[in-house]
Amino acid sequence: MNSKELIDDHPSIQLNVSHGDYHGTIWMSAVYGSYSYTMTFEIPDGEIAEFFCPHCGHSLIGDVVCPECSTKTVKLELEKGGFVHFCPRKGCKGHLITFDSRNSLIEEAYKHYQYMEPEED
């Protein structure tokens, strides 16, 4: 997390990114469902970027496929358990959260967002 680069008024997720001969940094919104970001170079729409840990340089490609376009997603571990997966294809909005097992994070989310069953028509 980068507290100096705010996206959506919150500290951003800072990753290294590359596409072709271009290598740089991307700062993405930490707000789930937001697609806001800034980066040091542009990627053409529809192209797939590679994302890396800014500390160790390890590739962040996971084994879950994008629910929108079937590209392998980028996998980020959540501090309190589970993973956020997002599509590395520019313009694709595919993303999801996975959990290994029921944990306190899920319970906190239900309490925070006051989840309600959808009403039947």
Features:
121 residues; mainly beta; five-stranded antiparallel sheet; four-stranded antiparallel sheet; 9 strands; 40% strand
Task: Please give a structural write-up.
The protein is mainly beta and 121 residues long. It is 8% helix and 40% strand. It has one helix spanning 104-113; strands spanning 2-7, 10-19, 22-28, 37-39, 50-52, 61-65, 72-77, 83-86, 95-98. The model has no long low-confidence stretch (mean pLDDT 88).
Q: Give the C-alpha Rg.
A: 16 Å
Q: What is the string of helix and strand elements?
A: EEEEEEEEEH
Kindly name the structural category. mainly beta
- The tally of beta strands, per DSSP, is 9
What portion of residues is helical? under 10%
Give the helix tally.
1
Mean pLDDT: 88
Q: What is the CA–CA distance across the termini?
A: 43 Å
Q: How large a portion of the residues is in β-strands, by DSSP E?
A: 35-45%
Q: Give the overall shape, derived from the CA principal axes.
A: globular
Low-confidence segments, given as residue ranges, are: none
Instruction: Characterize the largest beta sheet: strand count, sense, and whether it forms a barrel.
Output: 5 strands, antiparallel
Topology readout:
Blueprint: E1 2-7, E2 10-19, E3 22-28, E4 37-39, E5 50-52, E6 61-65, E7 72-77, E8 83-86, E9 95-98, H1 104-113
Antiparallel strand pairs: 1-2, 2-3, 2-5, 3-4, 6-7, 7-8, 8-9
Quick structural overview:
The protein is mainly β and 121 residues long. The chain is built from one helix and nine strands.
